[in-house]
Specification:
With about 170 residues, the chain is mostly beta strands. The protein is built from one helix and eight strands; from the N terminus they run αββββββββ.
């Protein structure tokens, strides 16, 4: 049920946010839209008590880099939140490095995020900019729908150590 809800939220957000494609004239940047799944680890684990937490995630994407052209990609995402808990993440800042199967990469700095919990799913809407590589200087929108890989009651004891997430990454034109 929760996986279906997360997939539905991601699908709806992609329909609402999908930028219009360009005709692909020479010198014009094509938007990139990547969808995939990530596995995140929290250090220290998330509890009910807000605390500074580091998050490291491995992401597997399928990216549309031009109309009708997709490539697989992998991402490595590292972030820090000064007040993270099982209930919310605030002021998350991070860096994602996306490696595309065609040998190119994008280095993305995430410097803004809004996070809410909807029926047990942690929804994070993140924004930033590509600082190096493919899409350099273009804005980024990243949507993460996280499902805990442990029982919610672990927030009261050992803490949540990891999450599985649906991720959509958009490098805007």
């Amino acid at each position: 049920m929760a996986v279906t809800l997360g997939a539905l939220v991601l699908m709806v957000s992609s329909l609402a946010w999908a930028p219009a494609g360009h005709a692909g004239t020479p010198g014009e940047y094509e938007a990139i839209t990547c969808t995939g799944n990530s596995h995140s680890h929290y250090d220290p684990p998330l509890t009910l008590q807000p605390q500074q937490t580091h998050n490291h995630a491995h992401v597997r994407y399928t990216c549309t880099t031009a109309p009708g052209h997709t490539v697989p990609a992998t991402g490595s995402f590292d972030s820090t939140s000064p007040t993270a808990s099982c209930l919310s993440l605030t002021d998350t800042r991070g860096v994602e490095i996306v490696h595309y199967a065609d040998g190119t990469r994008s280095v993305i700095v995430i410097d803004g995020a809004t996070t809410v919990r909807v029926t047990g799913v942690l929804e994070s809407l993140q924004s930033g900019r590509v600082v190096e590589g493919r899409g350099k200087d273009h804005f980024v929108r990243r949507t993460v729908s996280a499902l805990p890989s442990q029982l919610p009651t672990d927030c009261l004891t050992s803490g949540l150590r990891s999450t599985e997430s649906a991720v959509q990454l958009e490098i805007l034109p």
